[in-house]
Amino acid sequence: MNRIDSFKTLMDKQSELMPILNLRKESMESSEYKELLICGGTGCVSSQSNLLLENLNSEIEKHGLSDKVKASITGCFGFCEKGPIVKVFPEDVFYVEVTPDDAAELVKSHLVDGHKLERLLYEEPTIKEKVNTQHEMEFYKKQERIALRNCGLINPELIEEYIANRGYEALGRCISEMTPEEVIEEVKLSGLRGRGGGGFPTGLKWEFTRRPKSEVKYVVCNADEGDPGAFMDRSILEGDPHSIIEAMAINGYAVGAQKGFVYIRAEYPLAISRLRTALNQARESGLLGNNIMGTDFSFDIEIKYGAGAFVCGEETALIHSIEGSRGEPTTKPPFPAESGLWEKPTSVNNVETFANVPSIILKGASWFNKIGSETSKGTKVFALAGKINNVGLVEVPMGITLREIIYEIGGGIKDGKAFKAVQTGGPSGGCITADQLDVAIDYESLSSIGSMMGSGGMIVIDEDNCIVDIAKFYLEFTVEESCGKCTPCRVGNKRLYEMLTKITEGKATIEDLDAMKNLAETIKMTSLCGLGQTAPNPVLSTMNFFYDEYLAHVQDKTCPSGVCQSLLKYTVVPEKCIGCTKCARVCPVSCISGKVKEVHYIDQKACIKCGACFDACPVNAITKG
Amino acid sequence: MQDTALSKELYQELESYIDSLESKETALIEVLHRAQNIFGYIPKDVQLFIGEKLNVPASKIYGVVSFYSYFTTEPKGKYVFSVCTGTACFVRKADAIVKELEKTLNIKTGETTENKLYTIECLRCVGACGLAPVVMVNDEVYGKVKVEDIPKIISKYSE
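YS: structure for the whole thing
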């Protein structure tokens, strides 16, 4: 593409390129020309969507359809549970779980014969019927896509398609028609708040970075998505890398910075490669580098790699890591806006926060702040995972209820099990119970019920998961990830973890529960950074809402969900036992006795609760509990 | 480093990478990434070498290497089985997969078999939560893994 030397050239380019998205934007019953978009996110690529694309292309060619049908990759559709996804435009048909071997049949049926391939259509679990088009799917009905606007619409590896969908227009407008103060004012008015967890107003952060007088300032994009179970930042970078580049440049213009860094996890190779491609394209087109679009504004971006440390999501730790040191947090103030990277004013924002910025500039703050709740504007992307039917990425307006997310969008609990809780906010958050499913979600409401928005991980827990075990899982995570700098976090969380282990082993007393609560509150109050201050949340919130389950472990020495091994008791039901001796033969400690064709007996004292007998019994005569 | 000729080549590769860097003061983490790419791990000698080249004290380098879980000072097997133990995989019973791998390969997590063929690791969330539980073998991703799939997966990597 030629270099874009002015805002006008960009807009001309936009009008010239716009028609390439016509088929995708206008839903029509049918058309002679068609486009196939195949999901190219990490989840679907792991399920061979690259090979699928290759096969589709060769089938299209085989049938002589190459001049009428185009197939290419796009960013995450969010419907990860049923990947790989193939969407056919303009008729909006949504195929799920398409394997490379299905390519021939799909092309023959849909493109040559003109019949939808029924077999690969999505079946709505609630009505058990096949759904023809994407907009009829319950999963998408309540979603509103701002941050994910280009995912599933454009090919992330082509800057032309980004520009065709008004890409870089917001940047052009900022640097040619707005003052930095006006840009900041617009972001402030929009009510956008940090999507990485804290929820700090983005416009204010920008203003604080603009204020100090300094020749050198920096913009940092926090793509160190360390919260296990959250994958929205990865999906945005893979599916729409240009939107992050554009927003960082806007941020640079607003605060007076010429240099930006994307700090990204080394575990995200696909996101890194897409971002790198996008950076090169932006530089070649004059949309990054010196004198962007012929103005005085210059800005460039460099990628810095994380190396596996959760604490680096904390902004001061992240800054130290970019500087090439151990990623240990430091006390605030000074805030990075005053003294950040190499002691220069630095504006650190999360990927999803940035992804909202171009739309805010294009459509205006008054459009954005009409979406959402009183205190939390816009949308939030949640990563739905765990025991839910539709695992995936959803973007919903703030203020929606958990019930809508889990039962309408998420399709309910897997295998018809009973809902127990949903964990939000990752290792810093807490559990939300069935009674709270109708709470309208925003930053404030989630903290008021002892959880937090966090980065937007939403893990659904069912009756088969033990709540103490879940709390222990998160504590194990924080203990491993604690940087060790301050004592409450380094030692306190370790002790908490040991207490939880004692509970799951049936060795704890009621006094231990009290001590645990005390300790948790002390850690919260005295830790240095966000990691330590929030680490006890999973314990406190589960103790608050599921105290019965803790009591069962401590007083009755049982695990109601049958998860904690030391508390399990395997017994033979005499009426069911057929005396086949299978259990006795697999028992590694020979603690099962009984003669052939007679009822067997498990010696509880010797039993090591390995569960081998339970698995081996052909007539389900052994119970666990 | 048994093969000294090979090892010399590797050091040269690292050296030319370091020489190509514009600013050396802040490049430590990039250099460590590259070193681990080249050598497969970052033993003490390599750390000392980097220290000399970047003019950074060895103590700082060791501090950084030991801080980040991505860096390892021990060589790994030819095939690294990484089980995702992120929350989504955890609630879908990733621990049973870890146990089965440990039992079948007869090593513990973090260890490497004597023939240097297999290593078992746990990692935090690869972000493919729709496929939970997930096992990665080097760069290959296996999704929705069941305990009974393990022997079949291992048998694909037998030499």
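YS: worth flagging: The interface with chain A takes residues 25-30, 32-33, 60, 63-64, 67-71, 85-88, 90-92, 123-132, 134, 139, 141, 143 of chain B (CB under 8 Å).
IM: good catch. Also DSSP finds seven helices and four strands in chain B.
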